Amino acid sequence: MTPTREEAERMARDWCDAWNRRDLEAVLSHYAEDIEIRSPLVAKRLGRADGILRGKAELRGYFARGMTNSALRFEFEDVRIGVNAVTVLYRRENGMRVSDTMELDDDGRAIRMIACYAGGESDV
After folding, report:
1. Buried-most residue among 59, 64, 77, 84 (CB within 10 A)?
2. Do 57 and 32 form a contact (C-beta atoms < 8 A)?
3. CB burial of residue 67 (10 Å; 0-12, 13-18, 19+)
4. The whole model's pTM is what?
5. SS3 letters for the chain?
6. pLDDT in tens, 65-116
């Protein structure tokens, strides 16, 4: 599914708002059951050299852990649209700029996501 600009922005804002409310189910609603996520934070926090999480069950545990950070805050900046994909640009509570690129299934849920952080792994 290739979203319109309005659909992509609505999805991105809803995703950021769900994180800010610590609403795990609302965040997870944006992901397909067989989601694959690649992130330097996964590598750093979980000690996984490949930085990959697979499936919604793994994602649930990882995101639940992240939501325990009382300072956590995502500030939406912009969204980019690709073929069956969106990239959400946002700023974290620590000032770190992040871009999450999500490949979408036919229902508009992410089946693959790659998280990129300004500065690289040492700054994550």
Report:
1. 59
2. no
3. middle
4. 0.91
5. CCCCHHHHHHHHHHHHHHHHHCCHHHHHCCEEEEEEEECHHHHHHHCCCCCEEECHHHHHHHHHHHCCCCCCCEEEEEEEEECCEEEEEEEECCCCEEEEEEEECCCCCEEEEEEEECCCHHHC
6. 999 999 999 999 999 999 999 999 999 999 999 999 999 999 999 999 999 9
